[in-house]
Amino acid sequence: MNLEQAVTIAGGRADAQSLPAVIPLQQYKSVQASLEYASDLFSVQYRANAGPGAGNLHIIVTQSSAFDCRSRQLDNQDAVIFMPLGFLIRTRIMARMLLRYWGKERRILTIGPADDPVPESTWRLPTALEPLFDDLHAQDWDRLATLDEAIDLPPLFELDVQELMHLSVIHLLLTSCPTSDVGIPNSENSSVSVMLVFPRKFSR
Amino acid sequence: VATHADQSFLDMSSDELEVFIGTALLRDEFGSKDVSDAEKRAVAQRWFSSNLDEFRTAICGSGIIQDKLFGPQHAERNLLFGAVVDALGALRGLPVPIAALSAQVIHYGLRQLCAEPLLTEGRAG
C-alpha cells in the first residue's frame, strides 16, 4: 500500500482550512510543526534501524475523531504514523481543564486503600468527561466542542495551552503510539525525547 | 475463476463484506486498541470509493461482462460474479481478497457502476 492509499483509508489528511472550531488554527499549526520535527528525528532512527533502502517515517494528522495512533509499513519502505485530529483536540481540552487550577489553592488528596470496597465494574466516568474517552462517530466534533465550551479559562492562558499540547502530544507519541511496530523500539525514544520534549518557556 | 469457496462471499451482506474488507485493509496496521466494526466498515467504504474508477475500468471494459450485463439474455448472478472475479484478477496488488471485493461490487450494482462516468473525468470536466 502506498502513502496516499494509506492516508485515504485512515480518513484523509486533516485540512487546516476546515478545522473544527474546537481547535484554533494557530494551535493546530504549532502541533503540526512539532510533529514535522518529530518525523524528521524519527526518520533518522528509522533509516538506521530498518537498514538499506529504508525511507522516511511520516507522521500525519488525519481527519478522524478517534483518539488512538496507528502505524503501518508502506510498500516503498517508508513507514507512517497516523495521529487523529481527535487525539489533538482531546489533548487541548485536557490542557485547558488542567490549567483552570493554575494559581488556585492547593489541596492534597490522600489516595484510597487498594481494598476499596467499591467494585471496579461499577466505576463510571463522570458523564461530562465521556466524550474524551468515547469512540465518536467520524468527524463528530459536537460533543467535544460542548465539553470545551464548558471550560472557563481566560484567553490569557492560550499560550500555556499550546505549550501543554506540545508536551502532551510528544509524550503520547513517544509512549502510546505504536512506534516499535515500525522499527523504532520504545527504548530508543529516550534520545529523541530529549530533543522533542524539552519544555519551552511558559508565559506565566 | 470463482471457486465454490469464493461463491460464499455472495451470501454475505454488504455490511459483512465491508467488515471483512476493512479487516483485510487494516491487517498490516498497528494500533494500541482494536478497531471497531464500524471503523472497519468506514475504512472499507473509503477504500472502495477511492478505487472505484480503477474497478470500473477493469470491469466495465470487459467485453464478456458487457455481453452478460447488456446482452439479450440476462446472466445469472453467479456467472456475473465469476466474470467480475476474472476482471478484477487482472488488477495487480489488490490488498483484499478478490472474491470479497467482487461480491461487494455485485452489491454496489454492475449496471450502476458501468453507467456512472469516471470520477476523474467528472473532475477534469
Tell me what the structure shows:
The complex is a heterodimer of chains A (204) and B (125). With 204 residues, chain A is mainly alpha-helical. Chain A is 43% helix and 8% strand. Chain A has helices spanning 3-9, 25-50, 85-99, 130-133, 142-149, 158-175, 189-197; strands at residues 57-62, 70-73, 79-84. In chain A, a hairpin with a 5-residue loop joins strand 2 (70-73) and strand 3. Chain A is globular. The termini of chain A are far apart. Chain B has 125 residues and is an all-alpha fold. Chain B contains nine helices and one strand; from the N terminus they run H-H-E-H-H-H-H-H-H-H. In chain B, helix 2 crosses helix 3 (37-50), helix 5 packs antiparallel against helix 6 (77-89) and helix 6 crosses helix 7. The longest helix of chain B has 14 residues, at 37-50. Chains A and B meet through helix 1 and strand 2 of A and strand 1 and helix 3 of B. Strand 2 of chain A pairs antiparallel with strand 1 (29-31) of chain B.
Structure at a glance:
The complex is a heterodimer of chains A (204) and B (125). Chain A has 204 residues and is mostly helical.
